[in-house]
């Protein structure tokens, strides 16, 4: 997600008041219109079919965000390259730690601040949690690698590029068993002599 838009700022939720009351909760609900771009989730605007509903709960070390991302997002089919809506129903559970607090390592000890790269962590920044990160990370890691508009998608013709779902192309396809290529080459050589 490059460049911040007014909508991106809407997904940065202030939590200063929530942090003042440990173990208090606050609900957040956002409707999004989004698509998958080259660098992740791209927001097209509000009032879309993708919905984030979550509870934010304060703790001494930060804010826990737990809820669901449901709806659909625009993606491109990997076979025919046409855009289609992909359905999502994802449980999300992320922890945004207070800045300056080290994360906990696998053995349970707190890591020193020099051991923690804040870019790799969810951190409360300037009194707000950035739900853009939560949405992007959860959507992108849970989308299938091979995104298909339909299981029966025929894709594009490798010669002319026509979308074969819209009908056959006029390309002449000579299908030869690859094991017989050697014989075809011999026949072509013999014909040249």
Provide the fold topology.
Blueprint: H1 6-10, E1 12-14, H2 16-20, E2 25-37, E3 40-46, E4 50-59, E5 62-76, E6 83-97, E7 128-130, H3 131-142, H4 181-192
Antiparallel strand pairs: 1-7, 2-3, 2-4, 4-5, 5-6
Explain what the structure shows.
The chain is α+β, with helices and mostly antiparallel strands. The protein folds into two domains: 6-142, no CATH class; 156-193, no CATH class. 18% of the residues lie in helices and 34% in strands. The protein is built from four helices and seven strands, in the order αβαββββββαα. A five-stranded antiparallel β-sheet has the order 3-2-4-5-6. A hairpin with a 2-residue loop joins β4 and β5 (62-76). 16% of the residues are buried.
């Amino acid at each position: 997600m490059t460049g911040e838009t007014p909508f991106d700022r809407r997904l940065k939720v202030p939590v200063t008041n929530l942090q003042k009351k440990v173990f208090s909760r606050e609900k957040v609900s956002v409707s999004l219109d989004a698509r998958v771009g080259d660098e992740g989730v791209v927001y097209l605007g509000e009032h879309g079919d993708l919905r984030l509903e979550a509870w934010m709960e304060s703790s001494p070390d930060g804010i826990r965000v737990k809820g669901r991302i449901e709806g659909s997002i625009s993606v491109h089919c990997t076979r025919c390259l046409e855009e289609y809506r992909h359905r999502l129903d994802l449980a999300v559970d992320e922890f945004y730690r207070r800045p300056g607090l080290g994360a906990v390592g696998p053995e349970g000890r707190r890591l020193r601040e020099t051991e923690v790269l804040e870019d790799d962590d969810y951190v409360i920044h300037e009194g707000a949690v950035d739900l853009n990160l939560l949405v992007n990370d959860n959507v992108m890691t849970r989308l299938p690698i091979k995104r298909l508009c339909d299981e029966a998608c025929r894709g594009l013709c490798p010669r002319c590029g026509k979308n074969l779902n819209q009908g056959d192309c006029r390309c002449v396809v000579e299908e030869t068993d690859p094991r017989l290529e050697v014989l075809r080459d011999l026949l072509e050589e013999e014909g040249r002599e």
